[in-house]
Design brief:
The complex is a heterodimer. Chain A is of the alpha/beta class. Helix content of chain A is 32%, strand content 21%. Chain A has 12 helices and 12 strands. In chain A, strands 6-7-8-3-9-10-12-11 form an 8-stranded mixed β-sheet, with helices on both faces. Chain A has a 4-stranded antiparallel β-sheet with strand order 2-1-4-5. Chain B has a single domain, classed as MetI-like (MetI-like fold, Orthogonal Bundle), CATH 1.10.3720.10. Chain B is elongated, with a radius of gyration of 24 Å. The chains are: A alpha/beta, B mainly alpha.
Chain lengths: 349, 296
Amino acid sequence: MTEALMTHETAGEAPSADRPLLQVRGIVKHFPLKGGLFGRSTGTVRAVDGISFDVRKGETLGIVGESGCGKSTTARLLVDLITPDDGEIVFDGRKLGRDLTLTELRRNVQMVFQDSYASLNPRLTLEDSIAFAPAVHGMTDADARRLARELLFKVGLEPKRFAGRYPHEISGGQRQRVNIARALALSPKVVILDEAVSALDKSVEAQVLNLLMDLKAELDLTYVFISHDLNVVRFMSDRVMVMYLGEVAEIGPVDAIYAKPAHPYSRALLASMPSMDPDSRTEAVVLTGDPPNPIDPPSGCRFHTRCGFAEAVCSREKPLLHARAAQGHSAACHVGGVDTGHTLSELPA
Amino acid sequence: MSLFSPSAAVPVVPAERSPGYWSLVLRRLSRDKVAMIAFVVILALVLMAIFAPYIAPADPYKSSMLRRLRPIGTPGYPLGADELGRDMLSRLIHGARLSLMMGILPVFIAFGIGSVIGVAAGYIGGRFNALTMRTVDVFYAFPSVLLAIALSGALGAGIFSGLLSLTIVFIPPIARIAESVTTQVRKIDYVEAARASGASGFTIVRVHVLGNVLGPIFVYATSLISVSMILASGLSFLGLGVKPPEPEWGLMLNTLRNAIYVQPWVAALPGLMIFITSIAFNLLSDGLRSAMDIKA
């Protein structure tokens, strides 16, 4: 709780003029572990532990991290599929629960899931799946149907051939196009893409990524792009947020982070990225071991158990997000922070 | 409001439609020989029950002390006569009415009530689920035969109390199946996506959940029809369900049991009818289950 507040203060309020479209403030989600007799709580998984970030209008914010770091939980928290324990979501200056209703939030923030098959109802035609949301929001059946056809056309599927088909009859790439069309059916401002292309073949993935880029330009969309594929994130994103064990390790412009990561974790993550150039193979710092258990995360900096630069202060004090050299770049590491007590003032090359 | 104003310029031309899930299931079912035979048998039984007065050669209630326990093939009594000299064939034909009703009606009503309970518990989840399902478990803990006997014993003999007690017996198993199927479906992404679209719980259940859970629940329910028939026969046999002189297969089995050494074939006929009917329902249910198991 206090940690969440501190991060909140560090992030600061943006001036209302160029106010971020989506603001996340100290959001927390702990899952109770039920076990033992009568489902007593035996502990909590600290899936998302007080993270704050902004999404600016028209940008793509990439979120990266190992599996289990809270990427998908964050995505679900953004559309309140999971209700946060603490923290606030502010859309376009209006706070969820105060002057923004859940219905309004969901009209404006839509989501595309990873599993293209599981995210379409097998008993509905593609057209019916897309038309469902607009019909729920009061559009007449005929209009919703017409809109569904238009959206199918927009995502590159000929309406006449595909409107009456069922999900099992089309390929994974086509299904994901339908899921994108479904997410766009409410004319949202923000689309959250939770590993939306991760399950696709590389060639199909590229086509879908291009489609996403085209749609973004055409419809003036804002993306939150969640992936574990660092190359894809670099291709898609304007800014990147690196998550580790339910916390933000580093956030900033994609070029700054990919060129000079300020957090040892980001550096290790980027170093593990396979290079296209056979001469520059991945050597140096590669992470070993699994991330620690989020049920009982390490004290201080959560990364200190795996960090090559850890000192006494790292296990004692939690590092806050501090601004770095590049504009809008900040990282939660004692190295390079102000008066942190760490002997290093910069990560050694 | 909408980025895409639905323009009249794009007419909704009829698209190529794929056959829906249920038409695929029916097509597969129609290719299943065993299920089709079972279906024909059930159809014949149902028609027999509906048109019983027109088919039956004699009055099923008319007794004759002179013609008691005639063997199969006696002139005027093609399937013999029972212990009161009534025509067995006519009684078996008329018996289909009550027996089928006692088999189908309780399961049908329990399918409705059990599905509502199970789907609600499965979709709402949490404490509501725990409370509902533990209550259901209390009833489920009794052996079904014992529960049926206890309930109709308490309610008194008669068709209505028999139907009621059988319905109560079948609600818990159906609710359990409905709950487990719904709990699975609820976690699938398309339900999450529907929630993210801002639809109400009721709409999501109607559009996205029911279509995916009613099939499996229905298949399970059809497999209970034979159980229901046998339980109903059992109740009648014990004198708790249908009362004499109504023709009902279970009751006939009971009243003829004293004649088992005199006319074993005649005494076994009601049992044979119960056997054929319940086997047919079970085979149709199995066929339906495999026809619905379409791997996309």
